[in-house]
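Lab meeting, action items carried over

1. Structure of the two-component assembly. Owner: GW. Status: complete.
Input record:
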Amino acid sequence: MFTTRASPHRTVFLVIVLLILSALFILPFLWMLSTSLKTNAQTMQSPPVVLVPPQWQNYPAVLSSEKVNFRLFARNTLILAALTVAGTVLSSAICAYGFAKIKFRGRNALFLLMLATMMVPFPVTMVSMFSLFRWLGDTTGIEFIGTFKPLWVPAWFGNAFFIFLLRQFFMTVPDELSEAAKIDGCSELGIFFRVMLPLSRPALVVVALFTFMGVWNDFLGPLLYLQRPEQYTLALGLQSFQSQHGGAEWNLMMAASLMTIAPVIVLFFMAQRTFIQGIATTGMKG
Amino acid sequence: MTSGETKNFVKGIAFISPWLIGFLAFLAVPFAMSIYYSFCDYSLLQPPVFRGLANYRELFGDSVFWLTLRNTFGFAAAALPLGIIAALALAILLNSPVPAPGVWRTIIFLPSLVPAVANAMLWLWIYNQQNGLLNILLSGIGISGPNWLNANWAMTAIIFMGIWGVGHTVVIYLAGLQDVPRDLYEAAEIDGAGWWRRLFNVTLPMISPVIFFNLITALIGTFQVFALPYIMTGGGPDRATYFFTMYLYDNAFTFLKMGTASAMAMIQLLIILALTGIAMYTSKRWVHYQGK
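Predicted assembly:
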């Protein structure tokens, strides 16, 4: 630890500490997995049984459960995620380009205003947004409350944090590139789509990934706006599963939980580098 | 403005127009409405009726309001330092020269990927009195554990489960640690500085901007804690884990007292701004920015 030399004793000690800590961090996952493969009776057994013939049918049982339709929840979540991710990436990138590459009067003031909006906690606008969407439904005849719209429509209007992130990235792209394109007769929008976006793929992937995670995790948003079980996202569905099975059937609950965790873990291993670099850069901007 | 400036202005505004429109429609207008509602009697079903400071006065005389405020502050006072210390300790450990660093880092990081609802389910089961993992482990050393989600323990239980998901912050601190120039440690070592001296006189000052940034974001997040207690305890038992945002939510969508909820939202905003202000003000004393 902050030393330039590593003695063998110290390394052995560190590895032992890391082994213990890693075991503690992994244990909840193993516990979840083992519970999900037991019969309901086995989960209640004392002393607990560890090695039992795995009840793989718990997983299809959750998927085909009549009370909670997990397949539908997964589909809802993916639709919502697709709409939100597409909207956030596209609109945030356009705005970020404006803040990074076009010099116009009032730009800095607006940029500061945008940074300030990140401080406003969600509950501050929660109530009035709800009544706003209700009013919008009443006046336009297009229903918002009880649909996915309040959850994904705002995503198409840029996200302050991601605009900030992309702007920082766009600033590192040399102006010579866009100047050259301009001389070749490329319009500003053309430069954005043909020069800036292809060059910014790593940053755009970070935004897409984090937005996806946000949708996958979001509980309060769907809780506010979705009313019928057939619209539920996985987060909301899992919670309703718990409240319906009320503390019993932990095997099925753990199977269901694992199924909502697994895609995120798979995604992480597919894009490990992007994840870690994304978190490191987003967390360091001070 | 010259014609070139005007052209650029129009172009610039056009590019940032999604955010500008979104800012007006989804932040500025709702914000103004929230301020107005906070002075109104508003049930969502009938139009709001102005009643001055009555919502605020009622809140200040409401024992549940103070209870949720106490719970939230108590939670923050424990969870914030605990989270920072745990994350820093893990980051320092993971930054040491050990074999297979990537493996350890991945293991510590993975739990922070678990979605909040699944996290709540898992810990409900771990904290289960009869068959939960924690009490099984405790019984191994002869302790018969309580129901961890009873009125005495629920708050502590919710605070401590947060450590499991600290990996996200660890990654941020790790990145900060890796930016500390090695020659500083070498110089300190030559001067005879021991492990703790190096920690307090080199490492912590050097990564204090990262800690500070993290403190602010954690502060804002902690005051909005909702999903975990809502799912795990519903605020109970005996309102032991009833937090500010949960009471705000209940006021708005359970009791349909949108005015009261809006007043709470304003108070929450003021608290967060005040705390951030304090953090920024005191930061001059403990955050060291390198001259750039």
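2. GW to write a short summary for the group page. Key points so far: Residues 67-246 of chain A form a domain with the MetI-like fold fold (CATH 1.10.3720.10). The radius of gyration of chain A is 24 Å.
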